[in-house]
């Protein structure tokens, strides 16, 4: 089982950025916990602030992995190109958000990528990634 985790813009600052919304744990620390919790899963982790690099990684993993967990950050609400990349690949994608985007600013209530994903998990903190992994391994 191979699962790619892709985080978009500003998620490299998890643990430092707005801890009241995103918590105080870095993603790197959480990623180690995921690897220990699911030793049979081969994980890859990629974070980038540039839209095109996220698209390139979707293309790279989207035909050879069993699942992708994508937290596109702010690109969720603006990127037709990421939506098209998800539609173009064979690997199923789950949209992940640490915060409850529906309890935040109105512009965050629309996801351009959700219709091309198999599901969405939001508002459950970092636990959303674990739930996404559980979906794929079940």
TrEMBL record:
Reaction(s) catalysed by this chain's protein: 3-dehydroquinate = 3-dehydroshikimate + H2O
Alphabetically ordered keywords of this record: Amino-acid biosynthesis, Aromatic amino acid biosynthesis, Lyase
Residues at the catalytic site: 22, 97
Signal peptide: none
A GO molecular function held by the record: 3-dehydroquinate dehydratase activity
Pathway: Metabolic intermediate biosynthesis; chorismate biosynthesis; chorismate from D-erythrose 4-phosphate and phosphoenolpyruvate: step 3/7
InterPro entries from the UniProt entry: DHquinase_II, DHquinase_II_CS, DHquinase_II_sf
Any Gene Ontology biological process: chorismate biosynthetic process
Xref: Gene3D superfamilies: Dehydroquinase, class II (3.40.50.9100)
EC identifiers of the protein: 4.2.1.10
Residues engaged in binding substrate: 71, 77, 84, 98-99, 108
Superkingdom of this protein's organism: Bacteria
Enzyme class of the recorded protein, top EC level: lyase
Function: Catalyzes a trans-dehydration via an enolate intermediate.
NCBIfam families: aroQ, PRK05395.1-2, PRK05395.1-3, PRK05395.1-4
Name listed for the protein in its UniProt record: 3-dehydroquinate dehydratase
Organism, scientific name: Chitinophaga fulva
Gene transcribed to yield this protein: aroQ
